[in-house]
TrEMBL record:
The keyword Transmembrane applies. This is DUF4386 domain-containing protein. Keywords: Membrane, Transmembrane, Transmembrane helix. The chain crosses the membrane at residues 52-70, 90-117, 137-157, 169-190, 196-218. It comes from the Bacteria.
Length: 234
């Protein structure tokens, strides 16, 4: 397999991650807020157990596909930067961290949806709320990591190191949404606004990821003849 084919495969992995992520949003019904009672959470998980398990699986698979895409971006940026190591390390670390936190954030929800099939005792109600809260509060770190990944990848796009500048500016918008959603998850976790921003961030990120993947799939970066500006040039 030549480099052009490998790059198409890497770009396709980003599209797969975006589609899986959007499918997870469609599969999972709107969850109760963080301030919901244990009875409400248990009822919600009992009514939508299969949907929640499916959504958890889709998000985890999306994280795996996203890791391949991040590795592809690292290769492309390292070549475009000529060894200067400007944005490529940040894109790699933030992307890997984002995938890891997303996958781990689904573990408490998966555990709840799996164990909810049996009756929940009175003493276990608070444990249900704690596990559910851990899942919901993981959206804070996810938002901040989305912001870091989108701003670093977007900056590389603006500098024409990959894809195109217009995608880079869209990435900056996604970064702002991620930053606002991440911060609000820490300071306004009990509000409906925080949940709305989290959903908006997820959908915006998935659509931006899909657009970037399609552009890179149609025109592999190895075909581009560019001379990137030196980041550390005086």
């Amino acid at each position: 397999m030549n480099e052009r084919s490998w790059e198409r495969l890497g770009a396709a992995s980003g599209l797969v991650a975006a589609v899986l992520l959007l499918a997870a949003f469609v599969t999972a019904p709107s969850p109760p807020g963080l301030d919901a009672s244990a009875a409400t959470i248990i009822g919600y998980l009992g009514d939508h157990r299969v949907g929640m398990l499916t959504a958890s699986l889709l998000v985890t698979l999306a994280a795996v596909a996203f890791l391949w895409f991040v590795a592809h971006l690292r290769h492309v940026l390292q070549r475009a930067e000529g060894g200067a190591e400007a944005f490529s390390p940040v894109v790699l670390v933030s992307g890997v961290s984002l995938a890891t936190v997303c996958a781990l954030g689904m573990v408490p929800l998966t555990a709840l949806a799996t164990l909810i099939a049996r009756p929940v005792g009175l003493g276990e109600s608070e444990a249900v709320r704690v596990l559910y809260g851990m899942h919901q509060l993981s959206l804070g770190p996810v938002g901040l990591l989305v912001a870091l990944f989108a701003v670093s990848t977007g900056a590389a796009m603006v500098r024409r190191e990959l894809a195109g500048p217009w995608l880079g500016w869209l990435g900056m918008i996604v970064a702002v949404i991620g930053l606002v959603a991440g911060v609000s998850s820490f300071f306004a976790a009990l509000s409906g606004t925080a949940m709305f921003l989290a959903y908006a961030m997820g959908i915006a990120f998935a659509l931006w990821l899909a657009a970037a993947s399609v552009v890179m799939l149609l025109r592999p970066e190895v075909e581009r003849v560019t001379t990137a500006r030196g980041v550390f040039a005086r």
